[in-house]
User: Fold this.
Amino acid sequence: MLNYTHNNNELTLNNLNEVVNLKGWVLKKRNLGGLIFIDLRDKSGITQLVVKPESPLYELASSLKNEYVIEVSGTVVERESKNLNIKTGEIEVVLSSLNILNISENPPFTLSEQENVSEEVRLKYRYLDLRKPNAQNYLMKRSQITQAIRKSLIEQSFLELETPYLVKSTPEGAKEFIVPSRLYHGEGYSLAQSPQIFKQLYMIAGFEKYFQFARCFRDEDLRADRQLEFTQIDIESSFVDQKDILKIGEKVMADMFKEVFGKTLELPLRQMTYQEAFNSYGSDKPDLRYELKIKDFKEQLSKFDIPLFNNQEVVRGFELENNALFTRKYFDKLTEIVKKNHGSGLAYVRNETGILNGSIAKYVDETVVKPGFILFLIPGEYEDATNASGALRKELAKDLGFIDASIESLLWITDFPLLEYNKEDNRFYARHHPFTAPKDVNDLINNPKEALAKAYDMVWNGYEIGGGSIRIHEQRVQNLMFETLGFTEAQIQNKFGFFIDALKFGTPPHGGIAFGLDRIVMLATKTDNIKDVIAFPKTQSARDLMMQSPNEIDENQFKELGLKVIK
Amino acid sequence: MLNYTHNNNELTLNNLNEVVNLKGWVLKKRNLGGLIFIDLRDKSGITQLVVKPESPLYELASSLKNEYVIEVSGTVVERESKNLNIKTGEIEVVLSSLNILNISENPPFTLSEQENVSEEVRLKYRYLDLRKPNAQNYLMKRSQITQAIRKSLIEQSFLELETPYLVKSTPEGAKEFIVPSRLYHGEGYSLAQSPQIFKQLYMIAGFEKYFQFARCFRDEDLRADRQLEFTQIDIESSFVDQKDILKIGEKVMADMFKEVFGKTLELPLRQMTYQEAFNSYGSDKPDLRYELKIKDFKEQLSKFDIPLFNNQEVVRGFELENNALFTRKYFDKLTEIVKKNHGSGLAYVRNETGILNGSIAKYVDETVVKPGFILFLIPGEYEDATNASGALRKELAKDLGFIDASIESLLWITDFPLLEYNKEDNRFYARHHPFTAPKDVNDLINNPKEALAKAYDMVWNGYEIGGGSIRIHEQRVQNLMFETLGFTEAQIQNKFGFFIDALKFGTPPHGGIAFGLDRIVMLATKTDNIKDVIAFPKTQSARDLMMQSPNEIDENQFKELGLKVIK
Assistant:
């Protein structure tokens, strides 16, 4: 192989007359007026090569096809027709040698972003799909973001430490992958859903500051932005309270913004309680790139007799400027969204310069809505109506173009409820996990329904990108928690056994946070498909279309594990 | 919590009279002449605290027990009896406040290195075991080594990129873990044994320089230095030949030595062919901290009639200074080692100032061995006798103290055989894997038995710490390889299907290497137990004694996977 002198994004008029050695793939070959032009691509960019009709290389160059791998030598000359869109667009390289390193069959699709190829075909030939500039950019950014975050954590004195992936299976772990043991038939490991217990053990073991880019495995029914395996930036620290973890977490993000995008993220980030977020935006992950606050209209409308609103706990909604989009068909779509989000129904009234119309127009007068505006209203119980209003808010913002894509909106949501009461089985469940510390231990005893947690999420443009909590470090509080959750001693031992033991031996106060790397890269690169930022993703039906996995497991292989398939 | 002013390894006489806030664990409490002395430990080190009899804190301080977690304020004063072994040994802190953050039960073992605790107990309470200074050091060094290696690779323009762990199962993968699919009964994924295929796909996709700290999963019967999961520093590059990869690999190690230990590793590393290593040291991973070369004695001994050596292909061995260790019992032990390593037997002759003794003394004269020396000889076929000589060499060096522990011996072994011929099923197997490039394609065609591979290992003090190869990038050569291995078209499709497809579309020349992180940390920290450098290891019987895994999998959980246990 040659000693390559430059990458393909480097040569400019400053290199005129230099003899250079380059390598890469044939992106395109054109024959113009007897001259052969070749766009040579490597991971850095493109350089134009030229072979003249009188060149001894002419025949060989003519034989080149797309995606052939070549190395060349040549002289840098000024181009006649310049392309000022790329850095190397003012020069071209007149070839003096050409060596074909490998040939290529005709790819199943061209590597231009424009061609519309189905996701199925793209994923089957993912190694070709990844040659496209966008795909290259997603993964290079991923690598840069990874480094920037790691650098920030190391500068903050964190140790990078690993945790096992083959862990103990817990009987209720519906979402866990089982790895049967070959040595002990009937037994098995589970693939770690997160390093939660291990990072707390690191704190118990006295490491004080831990982080890891950890793979997590969850056997979930796949949604658009979930994968069977995903990468979590896992962070835990001892001798801290909530404010310390928030400071660490937001510094990580600010350092990443600075290092990768040269942007300044103003710190501290805004903090909003869960209660305020839900009340004003109908969501625990509000997108604050637009306002559109949810309000309560029950009081204001109480003087009217609106049958739909009778005996309803609340009437929630918001007013916005009337829009040509608001057709009957569109209202139907909105109503569907409201219902899908537990709303009882959608009412609206529009003021068209004094004339009211809409589903409740005949019950009200024009004092309820400004001329040129429309009022959306969802009656019902507080939780459901607010939740549905949040979904409506999101949909309208998207459709009406309220979102300013140049803004990055990051904030903390704090003060989450500690517990969730389940009416059906008449007991509390931990909202986060049973090791999350209460904000006030007395509430846990006297008023568990209202107890708040030392738990927090970071939200970016309406996505939850990270979450964590201060953990319970005192045996006494842990026991209180288990009592409140109605666990028996046997259940505690079975579920948390060794970890409860560990808590006995001088556990320091500690807490942490975990960020979702895939989501962060997705948001940072402004794509909306998480698969774009994962090199070898699985489909929503949990298949790898390239490898063709999962695949049938041989009967004998199962037998070796002491298992057989139920027909 | 307090605002901590110092870590516990920081205070010196420079801080006299300062008021400081500290935190940590009670390592030891002593009551001397009415004064209470507390050794306060955190991850950085130890600071001595004092409480005087007249202090209002005296009672609280008296109640402290080992491993209690506390935070304190106090004033730095000069110690009366100094401890010059630690940095803070000239001062102590007279407490003005003391806050117990958490209590501790009495640990099942003390945290001194001296106490002899069984591995079983240590692993059961691993979170306590990890509080010991040695254990802390192993894992902190692990974190530092990880960062140093990563930094080196990033400076060498490598991208850090991830690969999936849930991959396609291959029917012959005896050592793979199976992860049954919940969606598709009878099907499953396999846990990646290494990212080999994916790193090659990254090269095909045009990323040119990839690295990853990858977890690898192998369901092996565990040896002392193997775990079910281990961490590999996985590296691959395009447009390179062997010399380039060696350069990258040795720079990584040199940078690590410099950054973590401040030592200079002289580059380039020595290179030795596999043939020379095996011939002279009976090993493909020779420990060169001592010489003791294996030689051939057949020629020299041919004038004697030694029945044991008749009709033997070779007589291999070495001479060394006679030693008091060489008793009958010791020879028995050596003979056992020779036999376990495929040697037919061990002969020796000793020259005690003119008088010969030993198993072949009566057949030879004193010209064969110098006075005061002993000659060890292993007859047999070349491979077996050399292999056994290598094992003998290692054992003797260890027992006789030939190893200078202050030396670090790193070298490359190159020119491995490409194929291994198996007499039983009368066919060739790939020694590395079937994608390894031959040194000369013509040999693959004309003389496959002698064909060498573009494959290389890095060896450190007798351990293989890394290995890799240049890969086949041409379809034509790949087909030749498969033909030589006797694969049918159907077998190729079944085993390598999509990857063979991928090779068709302009695969660049590429190659790489993978280092074993666990082994590197083990050698760097001079321990000989790989479990020491893994935070939460499994035992040799594949069990996690702390979590108690693997554990029984519920019948219903298997049922959900379409499986049942064979009774």
